[in-house]
Description:
The protein is an all-alpha fold. The chain is built from 20 helices and two strands. Helices cover 78% and strands 1% of the residues. Residues 467-476 have low confidence and may be disordered.
Amino acid sequence: xxxxxxxxxxxxxxxxxxxxxxxxxxxxxxxxxxxxxxxxxxxxxxxxxxxxxxxxxxxxxxxxxxxxxxxxxxxxxxxxxxxxxxxxxxxxxxxxxxxxxxxxxxxxxxxxxxxxxxxxxxxxxxxxxxxxxxxxxxxxxxxxxxxxxxxxxxxxxxxxxxxxxxxxxxxxxxxxxxxxxxxxxxxxxxxxxxxxxxxxxxxxxxxxxxxxxxxxxxxxxxxxxxxxxxxxxxxxxxxxxxxxxxxxxxxxxxxxxxxxxxxxxxxxxxxxxxxxxxxxxxxxxxxxxxxxxxxxxxxxxxxxxxxxxxxxxxxxxxxxxxxxxxxxxxxxxxxxxxxxxxxxxxxxxxxxxxxxxxxxxxxxxxxxxxxxxxxxxxxxxxxxxxxxxxxxxxxxxxxxxxxxxxxxxxxxxxxxxxxxxxxxxxxxxxxxxxxxxxxxxxxxxxxxxxxxxxxxxxxxxxxxxxxxxxxxxxxx
Length: 476
């Protein structure tokens, strides 16, 4: 580390990402450095947000006194808190500075990590206390919104898709990474040492905060976008996109938190010990969120080529069939006594993995639709010149990204609550929840078709579709 990096000024007063000459002269390097450490901080934030999805694997019912239904609430509470935290986190970088807020929000994650370590080591703790401690993990859910807003300001329009996609994907992978850490711990020392996971993330959080402090910058010419958010929400399409984001990102984060628990319940039903069930669940659970994270940028690329509305529609239709696999498997499982057969377990895993991949693709396509919607609406603003239209479109898009992310995260709460209700019903299985998911994806497909495809003239570019990109030019 050079002395220059320690002495440099962390505040940038005038940043114009669209200045090509300044970009080539050094701004590109500054933006890349901030992007790298923003990804690191957001990645750790996602891991802490989902820490209770792995802690429940270390909590056998005979030791902690918390049944499967209670554990679904333990992973739903952080999702709920994280969803609400995304709105204030969206405006924080402009007010406090991207570097300052990244350092502060990273250090704040030490609190839920330390609390989790302390109370998970105390099996006699009340269930209410565990719920409160789990709620603090929701702080990690807000990091996505502040990270995306901050990086959005650093990059020019022609490179935003790549930069934001990389930032979002790097953050999402924090979910399978903490699950892999848990798998390593369970495979080596069993499911009795959850504090090892917490200790590893106390170090990771500290390194993320240190890196942000040393290498990131504050852009002082940014403005808080609460006013832009209020204006964006006056448009009908903003609410439609937020609803569709429940089906894409909400599915990703909800299943990420619940998949391991569903697997563990099935393995326990097969007569495995809690330690064996935890190990086998951990060996599989990380695959879903990992593949869903990898699929996200491909959804954006497909949306660029074929159209955001079309890819989103096709995705929800495919998710309906994937949920249908779970429904059919659940009905076959319910029709016979005893644990699921090997074929049925394979079908459960296949259905969930498909939902993860498809939710990742849909995540990318719906995310790409947001700037395209406001780009189209900006063309109807006769009161603005060309530069004003571009600025208005970027402002509306940035505001809606944060709000849609908050609403979408509520889908994770919905998934875990529905699964819990299904398990405590007379059926004592997840089949009823699978029916609800199937019906919801049908509604999402119908809404996508009606709003973005059905009423468009054959030759008109539908709202939510990007203009074709000429050969040799980067998408804007």
